[in-house]
Amino acid sequence: MTEAFTEVLCATDLPVGRMKAVKIENRTVAVCHTASGFFATDNTCPHRGGPLAEGDLIGDEIVCPWHLWGFDVATGLCPGNKDFTIATHDVKLDGDRILVRLSPVRETSDAL
């Protein structure tokens, strides 16, 4: 994990209600733009490994395209099952540049 922020996207390329998967180091991150701002989470659903950025962004919830599990983009919590979470990462804007700092890799629940 790096302590530095990495530029991942231009803010104008990610409209509200959209998300995009980006690679940082050896991790794939879903960068989301909600009405509340920009957020970044791990891109892999802990349920069955679905690619979260290919799902839907509904309000502040990212929804897995495979089995419709949802996760709060700010906290990483799954409202339907508090035992499952996704990692969230620090995001900041520098002008129109979206910058992300990875959080440490954390243990996740075994897939069901």
Structural class: mainly beta
The whole-angstrom Rg is 13 Å
Percentage beta strand: 35-45%
Major β-sheet annotation? 6 strands, antiparallel
H/E series, N to C?
Answer: EEEEEEEEE
Helix content: under 10%
How are the strands of the biggest sheet laid out side by side? 1-9-8-4-3-2
The residue-averaged pLDDT reads: 92
Q: Please mark out the parts with pLDDT under 50 across 5 or more consecutive residues, or reply none.
A: none
Distance between the termini: 28 Å
Describe this structure in words.
The chain has strands spanning 6-10, 18-24, 27-34, 37-42, 56-58, 61-63, 70-72, 88-94, 97-101. It is mostly beta strands and 112 residues long. The strands form two sheets. Strands 1-9-8-4-3-2 form a six-stranded antiparallel beta sheet, with no helix packed on it. Strands 5-6-7 form a three-stranded antiparallel beta sheet, with no helix packed on it. A hairpin with a 2-residue loop joins strand 8 and strand 9. The radius of gyration is 13 Å and the shape is globular. The model has no long low-confidence stretch (mean pLDDT 92).
